[in-house]
Amino acid sequence: MKCAIILAGGKGTRMKSEMPKVMCEVLFEPMLHYVIRAVKEAGCEKICVVTGYKHEIVEEYLEEGIETAYQNPQLGTGHAVMMAREFVEKHKDDEILILNGDGPMMTAETINNVYAYHMENNNSITLTSAIVDDTNGIGHIKRDENGTLMCIVEHKDADEEEKKINESNAGMYWFKGADLLYALSNITNENAQNEYYLTDSLEILINQGKNAGAFVCENSEVILGANDRKQLNTLNNIMRRNINDFHMVNGVDIPCTDGVMIGMDVKIGGSTTILPNTIILGNTVIGEGCTIGPNTYIKDGIIGNNVILDNVKLTDSEVEDCVDCGPFVQVRAGSKLCKGVHIGNFVEVKNSVVGAGTKSAHLTYIGDSDVGENVNFGCGTVTVNYDGKNKSRCKIGNHAFLGCNTNLIAPVEIGDYAFTAAGSTITDDVPENALAVARARQVNKDGWVTEKKPYKDMK
User: Fold this and answer.
1) Which element (helix H / strand E) includes 384?
2) In angstroms, what is the C-alpha Rg of the chain?
3) Which of 1, 11, 255, 267 has a Cα at 20 to 30 A from 261?
4) Catalytic residue among 55, 247, 362, 399, which?
């Protein structure tokens, strides 16, 4: 069985964040999110996360079934794994993956490639490496003249010749469980930092005659992590590029990628166009032939085919085929826009179902309402759903016509084909086919201005 230990205890001082380092975000998700995802996709059935700084934040984020171990104080990567010794003992007959929680670029494919190499060579330990240009701060992979793996030298402990080695330790390892237990029992802190290095496991196991190897990744980007905000920005740009490239290869048109940020779980159909400054996140699914953007934000939306969302903010809602929205529209959680709906500028929809063919061209609030088909909302119409204590719903029948500046005081029901006169405040149900007029009668006072001359007082 495959198991995994994720090291997630670091404070990340250079991030200058109150959050644990692994909770700093790439494309609006914690770095830890991507590592857990990759580990699961690689088939690891049991996972243990080693926490440390503000451990309660990390533990609260983890989903049920993931085990934790707590490291305090933090005395190196070897010490972190020692804190998970109980997990290791339970899985001593399994293969155990160890990797860092701040490496969001790691992929399941890479994990499994290293695993295959590990198993084929019957290794007790297999580390992952990459050839890099900048060797500052890395662990250097030291080999003999025949290329045989010897040890890992931490940068702070390396001499000048060793610092020139550009084969870098990626911080990801596969171990045989029993051999990992042996190594943990023999790691010491006799080094410049007085810390327990997991990297010492390599030399310990080699000295015991165990097989060891290093799998060199062709794509060095997968090993990248972030120690400060500039490096975090680099990770954001790489991941954004990779995801956008994936969608373009699969038939999505992104004519200009400026400001386009698409989450890893988003699905987009072919021939859809994503315009600049558009952010699409969560478990969003977008159909074919849509135009999304510019300046649009979608999170956890279900979008049909041939939909136009122009300058729209949409969350936790569903949009059926051939709907067009915008500009300057907000569709809030729990809403459903049925086929062919038109939502124009400065309209907000909240927790409502809007029936097929219904139109709301401008300046309208539709909240907590069940709206039928082919309804017309006049400019300035408001469903008054909150009385200061309770939220109530409006029901609007098919083919109803709501005149401009109509206020529907919920709970109220408008029947099929009913009309409301412009400027009406509707407090009672309106029957089918009826016209409701609910406004004060106009009164003109002749000569009032001449008599009062109020404009003189305004000078």
Assistant:
1) strand 382-384
2) 31
3) 11
4) 362
Listed in order, strand segments (DSSP E) in 246-358 are 261-262, 267-268, 273-274, 279-281, 285-286, 291-292, 297-299, 302-303, 308-309, 312-315, 318-319, 324-325, 329-331, 336-337, 342-350, 353-354
Q: Quick one: which H or E segment has residue 140?
A: strand 139-143
**3-state class of 245 per DSSP?**
helix
Reported as a single tens digit per residue, the pLDDT across 325-371 is 999 999 999 999 999 999 999 999 999 999 999 999 999 999 999 99
- Do 28 and 281 contact (CB within 8 A), yes or no? yes
Helix ranges (H only) for 62-199 are: 77-82, 85-90, 108-120, 177-184
Whole-number average pLDDT of the chain: 94
pTM: 0.90
Task: Dump pLDDT digits (tens) for 178-203.
Answer: 999 999 999 999 887 899 999 899 98
Distance, CA of 7 to CA of 4 (rounded, Å): 10
155 is catalytic: no
* Number of helices followed by number of strands (H, E) in the chain: 10, 38
